[in-house]
Amino acid sequence: MALSPNQPGGPIWSTGRRGAGGRARFALRYFIQLLRTHPVYAGGYVIVAVVAIFALAAPLVAPYSPITADPSVYLLPPSFSHLFGTDVTGMDVLSRVIFAPRIDLAIALVGTGLSAAIGTFLGALVGYHQDARGVPRFLSGFVMRSADVLQAFPVFVFAIALVAVFGQSIASVVFAIAFVNIPIYLRLMRSQVMNIRRMRYVEAAYVSGMPDSYIIRRHVVPNAIAPVLAQLSVNIGWSILLTAGLSFVGAGVRAPTPEWGSMIATGFPNIMTGQWWPSLFPGLALAVTVYGFGIIGASIEFMADPRRRRTLANAGGPIRDPGE
Amino acid sequence: MGTLRYIGGRLLFLVPQIFGIVLVGFLLVKAVPGDPATLMLGPMATPDSIAKLRGELGLDKPLPVQFIIYINRIAHGDFGTSWQTTQPVVEDLAVRFPATLELVSFGLLVALAIGIPLGIVSATRRHRVLARIGDFYGLVAGALPDFWLALILIYVFYSLLGWMSSPIGRIDVMLLPPRTITGFYTIDSLVEGNWPAFRSSLAHLVLPVLTLGLVNAGPILKTTQSAMERMLQADFSLYARLCGLPEKLVMRHALRNALPSIVTIVSVLYGFLIGGAVLVEIVFSWGGAGQYAVQGVLNADFNPVLGFVIFSALFSLIVYLVVDLVYLAIDPRIRQ
Amino acid sequence: MTGSEAMTRDERGIAASPAAAAPLIEVEDLEVAYHVYGSAPNRALRGISFQIMPGQILGLVGESGVGKSTLARAIMGVLPSPGRIERGQVRFMGSDLVAFDEAELAKERGRNLAMIVANPRGELNPLLPIGRQIAEVARAHLAVGREEAARLAIDMLKAVSIPDPERRMRAFPHELSGGMAQRVVIAIALVCSPKFVISDDATSGLDVTVQAQILNLLRRLAREKHMAMLYITRDIGVAANFCDRIAIIYRGQIVEEAPTDAFFGGPEHPYSNLLLAAFVHDPRLRARWGAALARVTPAAGEAACLFADHCVNRQERCVSERPALEESTPGRLVRCHFPVHR
Which of C142, C160, C190 delimits the end of a domain? Predict the structure, then answer.
């Protein structure tokens, strides 16, 4: 069933003869072309890569220990020995900024990963059985109404309450983030699956007796995956912001663990008195990181849109679309 | 007549939704550790007095009974008392909710003023430079932590340049707030003719509104841009050009057709920001509703939390209802 | 092909205005290609030439994908972006439209040059009442105020035989039936009394009775307003009844052009014969038009004549030498080395 991706209403990626390996290579060539013609997207990947390196290799990169307080050098403005200055307890801001992704990134990745896994699974089930009768339909309705109720809750208050319920720890922050994000993936996957189900090629597979699992695996998932990936990337960025916000309020990661939000909070009183660096740099790092993830999400969206993808092929060398 | 029935149907649907929210909220706050009686009486309280207070508060009854009691109370408009402020929650919210609304409403207005024009320019790509700025802004704004931006703005405009007055609260500490009519300090002082209060409340609004406006312009810009792009490439736009309609007219029509998407994002933001502006409220000591609820959670003061959750959910649902009516007005196809 | 609705042959001949001997629109050697993927461009139109006199209706008949819509859009200047006009001229009212820039073309579109689109309900703006959509086109091109434009819109609705036009002005596209929406699109195309109208497969989706009404309407308006019209269709039967001249298009080239009667009396290109044979059911007519749909082995490599691979009469010369569109009998053009004569 090799339909051209350019066919209106057809699949985004041809589920055709080439198989998964061919599709991956083909997608890779488009991706490289995207990075060459739109350097902004490359910038996003570079940012996230750098942040990841910081998270993994922080002890090697950071000049000082992030939690050693030296009161004698407190609140020093940026200088050669302390590029980002020191905060009120004398800890080096740069080192803490470099160590912070360990916490922030880990929490965001695990939290959104969990919510994406649960949300897409539930959403696919609900979307696939949308038109069924009896028990599945009732359950679908119940799941959707529950999602409505959860989404009507003020997100921040809900997250804080969850952290309060499970005691303040990193695990509870992860759990809170996972929980508040589930409805997003649930709705997204459900609407994707419902759209794909209505497509003729899925009907054809269904009518020709393919089992549900095959249909889901071969047709539904590959075409639903792109928007989910784009959402995932943006969501990770937003979850980092949420983590920082929780820590800022005091309901997230506790001092002295380096975390961008709590760093901004401790630097808050100093802003009024003119010491801007303890709060500025963590926030800047936070903004740049979230920006990087946002760019990645935008690049995935670009790749998933057949019309915009075509503009890449026009600009560069010949890339043959296997579906044509 | 059909519209009235539609509204009636939606209002009816509100009831089970509110019920669900109250239920989940109730379970949530009950799950938060911390005994209100202990917290209210303080560390010197005796076990006897704590037990007595618990009995009075009904905390020793089984959960379903507590829930029914609570439902009964709020049905009569009694949302309990906050042990932190010792005021009834309804009175606390009567001041704080409008405070948040004022902040969020002005903030969204600023966000619209920035986001829609930039979004249109980015979509039509008339001015290359502005269009690229628009693209960049759309991505950056969503990345900025609002509490951090608030601090930076305070630093620049208050500490460094000295242009702004003290970034604390809604009005200068030496002035009395105007008499409450709507709860919006700006409107109330205007109605009263109270110029000092008006100027002061406006001045105190500048920085927080700017913060919210700059950050939330991002999603509005992105939505406007993507909706305009879609509409400009839609069949009716191509047909309009085929008929020789001037480009300005084609764009106006595209914008009109893009309105539903923009209205959607504004409604989502509005509902979100009631609770989502809490960090900005905290930075500026605004005394808003979100701040109130957060303090409630952190201090096991449950009545404010539940009261806030219910009111903000009600507000969101009403906003969605109004938005659906707006859709009806814009798109004739829905009226069938 | 109902005889009662058709104009008589004489009337058709008289319809071309004797005063205007010059063609209203003249397309010469138009080549259009779509550039996709950096690989070989798709040559959609390979040297199209024709001319249409004022008051005359030229039918352009061909199968799907041969370039009919491309031609319409190329003339109007609204080719989708991978498409480009490679060479050729479109002479209209003394100017070459190919040389115009977007601003100049926009002035002509709707005013002197109009197109009636297919799928009208998909093309009209769903949020605006149809009266307003007609009036806007009038206001854009004619120096009229709002009330005058509304009056023109009502007049057009009357002209296209839409009942109760004052009330219909406020209707929305989704409230109209297919036939009515098609009339609205005709009204929009004609409101500024353009000199040249292209109908791009505009009646193919309609019921037969509605189609007949609309074609009569178009023909009457064309005669009254002295418009030149290019009627693009896949249905050769409709073209026979409606058009003054017929042009057959195959793979981006015009392979035959002739007055309608002469054409149906005896088509000269092998492809035209096949086309007609495919349309009729009567075995005698089929035999007459050479329904020898025999299997033809394709020549090795691309033959010079684009139809050679499917042509029963293929000879050596067809493979090596590209035929040009030449006059075979007076007033008729054929692109074939060995046209069919009876």
Answer: C190
Do you know the residue count of chain A? Answer: 324
Q: Structurally, how many domains does chain C consist of? A: 3
Whose tokens are 């209203």? That residue is: C24
What burial letters (b/e) apply to C175-210, b meaning 16+ CB within 10 Å?
bbeebbbbbbbbbbbbbbebbbbbbbbbbeebeeeb
- Domain that includes residue C132, residue range: 126-190
Per cent of chain C over pLDDT 90 is 28
According to DSSP H, which parts of chain C are helical?
9-15, 68-76, 102-108, 120-123, 130-141, 146-159, 165-168, 178-190, 208-225, 236-242, 260-265, 270-279, 283-288, 316-320
For residue C53, is pLDDT > 80? yes
Q: What is the pLDDT of residue B335?
A: 67
Q: Decide if B3 is inside a domain.
A: no
Q: What is the mean pLDDT of each run of 10 residues along chain A (324 residues)?
A: 39 47 68 81 91 89 82 83 84 89 92 92 81 72 81 84 83 90 88 78 79 74 80 90 90 84 89 85 93 90 77 52 36
- Whether C44 maps to a domain, the answer reads yes
| Amino acid, single-letter form, for residue B148 | W
pLDDT of residue C288: 63
Which of A29, A314, A320 to substitute to test the interface with C, most C CBs within 10 Å? A314
Tell me which of C263, C294, C324 is where a domain ends: C263
Which chain A residue has its CA at the smallest distance from C36's CA?
A: A314
Residues 6 or more apart whose CB falls under 8 angstroms from that of B85 comprise B92
- C120 located within any domain: no
Domain containing C7 — which CATH number? Answer: 3.40.50.300
* CB-CB neighbors (< 8 A) of C172 in chain B: 332-333
Question: How much is the pLDDT for B60?
Answer: 77
Give the residue on B whose Cα is nearest the Cα of C186.
B243
- For residue B26, the one-letter residue type is F
Q: Residue A77: its pLDDT value, please?
A: 85
Domain extents for chain A? 78-291
Q: Which of A153, A162, A280 sits opposite B309 (nearest CB)?
A: A153
| Third-level CATH fold of A78-291 | MetI-like fold (1.10.3720)
Average pLDDT over chain C, rounded to an integer = 83
- Tell me which residue range forms the domain holding B148: 89-288+312-335
Same domain, C146 and C20: no
* Nearest Cα residue in chain C from A30: C37
Spatial CA neighbour of C201 closest among C231, C229, C241: C231
Residue A68: what are its φ and ψ, rounded to 5°?
Answer: -85, 115
**In Å, how far are A116, A147, A181, B260 from A185, measured between CA atoms?**
6, 10, 7, 23
User: What is the predicted pLDDT for the residue at C299?
Assistant: 58
Contact residues on chain C for A319, CB-CB shorter than 8 A: 37-38
Q: Say whether both C185 and C305 belong to one domain.
A: no
List C residues 300-329 in contact with A (Cβ-Cβ < 8 A): none
Residue B117 or residue C15, greater confidence: B117
What CATH number has the domain bearing residue B170?
1.10.3720.10
Could you say which of B32, B140, B290 has the minimum Cβ distance to residue A156?
Answer: B290
Provide the whole-model pTM. Answer: 0.82
The per-residue pLDDT for A15 is 45
**Tally of structural domains, chain B:** 1
Angstrom distances, CA of residue A316 to CA of A26, A32, A323, B262, C38: 14, 11, 19, 35, 7
**Distance (Å) of CA C79 to CA A158, B99, C31:** 53, 55, 12
Rounded to the nearest angstrom, the minimum Cα separation between A265 and chain B is 9
Which of A191-200, B315-324, C112-121 has the highest mean predicted lDDT (pLDDT)?
C112-121
A321 CB within 8 Å of a chain C CB: yes
C102 shares a domain with C135: no
> Given CA atoms C318, C321, C323, C326 in this order, what sign does their dihedral have?
negative
Spell out where C7-110 has E strands. 25-34, 42-52, 57-61, 83-92, 95-96
